[in-house]
# Entry
Amino acid sequence: MLGYFIRRLLLIIPTLLVILTINFFIVQIAPGGPVDQAIANIENGRQAGQTILPGGEAELAINNKQIYRGARGLDPQIIAEIEKQYGFDKPVWQRYIETIKNFICFDFGNSFFKSESVIGLIIKSLPVSISLGLWSTLLVYFISIPLGIRKAVKDGSKFDFWSSMVIIIGYAIPAFLLAVLLIVVFAGGSYFSIFPLRGLISTNFDQLSMWGKICDYFWHICLPTIAIVVSGFASLTMLTKNSFLDEVRKQYVVTARAKGLNEKQILYRHVFRNATLLIISGFPAAFVGILFTGALLIEIIFSLNGLGLVGYEAIIQRDYPVIFGSLYIFTLIGLITKLLSDLTYMLIDPRIDFEAR
# Structure
């Protein structure tokens, strides 16, 4: 197992390199980069640090220089200053090499549009995303596995039919639409004001006791988690049910029954271990999917300053350092989660040997 673990760790390096390389060049050729946006903002009179002077002229601070322009066009020198400010005065291959070198040292640079380093933004935002994704994934598993087992045991019964109806309805409701509905009903909308409307903690969080902080945290995260869980547990429930049904029909179950074992012993001592292998293998995809896609709109709707919201704003603003830094962290978490899933696979069933592959 140790040899397999080391090989998988080493494979993370080229995987990260390939993903970053592809995305680096895709982003470079995409229109509307930070230079274009800066020029457009200047021309529209909305650039940060700009003041309107008497006579209709504008003053722009670039690299601590005061640059004046008239109402029409931009001087090439101003454009050159903007390109230098954002690092686009260098050829693309040089920017690529510098990016890779910096990323090896986890140096993501500074945000183009926020007065903060990228690593600072990630450190501040990552706990919010992981917290939301982890609780949602755990709840999905805690609901789906018992429900899937129950549906397998009661296959074809009224419980199986009606629970399937509820699962299909929950799966059909988009998470962001359910989030809006929860806000309207329970967060001071048109009906009740039970839960907070935004944020992960209250403004007086530091003044609360330890128990008060725990209650305040779960009070804030309740609605976002529900919005993700309701639409996320359907596929895992059906996967659990089908896995158990497949195992129940196998020969070793028939043999166990012939030996006189009762159904609970067969189900939880023999069937459970084999049936959960497929479920465990899907944990990384479920966690990464909730963390990086399912929670994106939820973070926006509930004003949660997570990595998904930061990455979304960076894409809109073409904030390349934040985009690449978020992508790097996303990919690294996904690869490590997949590795941990494979190792758990081997611990649950020692017969599985990835080293032989």
